[in-house]
UniProtKB/TrEMBL annotation:
Compositionally biased spans, kind Low complexity: 28-107
Protein's organism: Nannocystis exedens
Region described as Disordered: spans on this chain: 22-116
Name used for this protein in its record: Uncharacterized protein
């Protein structure tokens, strides 16, 4: 019997211990969902903030919170995107600056000009193709070359060619025309006007053949009237005109009709 009395308190003590966890259980029930909810909300927010693709892993209460967090994160991402776009715009400006630099570099290259042409000879023109037209005085004196072309579109018979120099020394070129060069303006002149005295034999009429006939005019920036005249002073800075000209006559309905074929290229000399 005494041993039995010792056992009873042990049972009562065990019952009392069983009652204590009931309070702790109540606290645990309250805490555990709260902890789960908090953890879930935190996880949802973190998940939403970090990876938009991952779906919320918590219940209905947490999902809207995660959605709000995702929306906020998306907005922030959009704002960041705008900043990136701004950076791209800056990059675009740099590219534009690069293009401007290229344009500046291009501006340092010689300016190209294309001459003007007029003709009263059917199907025949003289043209200056695009070429440099701005030089310094020093560059001109070092020597420049102007390129021109005689264009004949179709065969043209009975064409007379007239000389343009003072001593009747000009002769037809590859195109069949007599093309005389000249650079003039501001009281300056460069030409083959005085080549001496020649027999001045008549040049018979010819048939012009279709084709493109290139020609060149070399110049060293000085006044000059031809081989029988001393070299003159250099051209000063200013605006001048290079021209190639052919004159003569052709048959039109049995009558002789005068013609002029002219091309002009404006040039500029800089100091």
């Amino acid at each position: 019997m005494p041993a039995l009395r010792r056992t009873v308190p042990a049972v009562v003590s065990a019952a009392l211990l069983a009652c204590i966890p009931e309070k702790g259980g109540t606290t645990g029930e309250t805490t555990t969902p709260a902890t789960d909810a908090t953890t879930g909300a935190t996880t949802g927010a973190t998940t939403g903030a970090t990876t938009d693709v991952d779906p919320p892993t918590t219940g209905g209460t947490t999902q809207p919170a995660a959605t709000d967090s995702e929306s906020t994160t998306t907005a922030a991402g959009t704002s960041t995107g705008s900043d990136s776009s701004g950076s791209e715009t800056t990059t675009g400006s740099e590219t534009s600056s690069g293009t401007s630099g290229d344009t500046t570099d291009t501006g340092n290259e010689p300016v190209l000009c294309e001459g003007t042409s007029m003709s009263s000879l059917p199907g025949v023109t003289i043209v200056f193709p695009p070429q440099p037209c701005t030089f310094t005085v020093a560059e001109a004196q070092s020597g420049v070359v102007f390129h021109y072309e005689v264009h004949v579109e179709a065969e043209l018979p009975d064409v007379l060619r007239y000389r343009q120099d003072a001593g009747d020394c000009d002769e037809p070129g590859p195109s069949g025309l007599i093309v005389a060069p000249q650079i003039s303006g501001m009281g300056q002149a460069y030409c083959f006007c005085n080549q001496g005295l020649c027999p001045g034999l008549d040049i018979p009429p010819t048939t012009l053949q279709p084709g493109v006939y290139p020609g060149d005019l070399e110049w060293k920036g000085f006044n000059w009237q031809g081989p029988h005249v001393d070299l003159g002073p250099p051209f000063p800075p200013g605006e001048y005109v290079v021209q190639e000209r052919a004159i003569g006559s052709f048959k039109s309905e049995g009558a002789d009709v005068d013609y002029e074929v002219l091309a002009q290229l404006p040039i500029t000399l800089l100091p």
